[in-house]
Amino acid sequence: MSDYDCRQTVMSSAYHGRRSRTIEVPIARLRVRFEWLTGLKQPIFRNVRLVGSWDRHGRYADEKRIFAMKKFTAPDGCPAWRADVRLDDAQRGWTFRWGVIVDTQHQKAAWGIPNSSAQHRSFELREDGQVERYYLTQCRRLGANKLWREGTKKPALTFSVWAPNAREVDALAIQRADTSGATDVASSTPSA
Predict the structure, then answer these.
(1) In a domain? residue 102
(2) Do residues 149 and 126 share a domain?
(3) pTM for this model (two decimals)
(4) Which segments within 104-141 are labelled E, that is strand?
(5) Which end of the chain is more exposed for a tag (fewer CB within 10 A), N or C?
(6) CA distances (Å), origin 67, targets 28, 43, 51, 167, 187
(7) What are the φ/ψ torsions at residue 91 (nearest 5 degrees)?
(8) Which residues contact 112 (CB under 8 A, 6 or more apart)?
């Protein structure tokens, strides 16, 4: 029985003569994707593992389950890791905990969520396809940054700002118009 493909076994007491049979009935499960995004260009992490508060059937448990995470390149062009887990649909609305353990050149089994006193994140199980993300650093999330879209050779430009009390945000873009050095300056105000 796989951690990712849990089934519930139901015993049938339908006797036909002296026979009984076991029937496997799939339980409804919700896929949750966990992403750990470093925001760092240097490949300093390896053996990245997801730690979660669920048992092998996808139900909440105080015991910790550990899963290997798969490496991918995040839209900011930095190394990141993800793992998909299936949790029991009957526990929709429950609060689960998760964390990340990583190995570095200098330390094995370091917590990958260092700014939390409990070193884990919490989430409420809501729906199939739910995504839970943790950003190790915000340095490639705010301001002007390259955005690497899948299947493209050149990055796009993205601009993000965190200004919860702002009524308006202006971004000034400077673009080269020709090879003579002339520039075209444009200002835009994105709609909220």
Answers:
(1) yes
(2) no
(3) 0.69
(4) 110-111, 121-124, 130-135
(5) C
(6) 21, 20, 7, 43, 47
(7) -105, 20
(8) 36, 45, 48, 99, 100, 101, 102, 134, 136
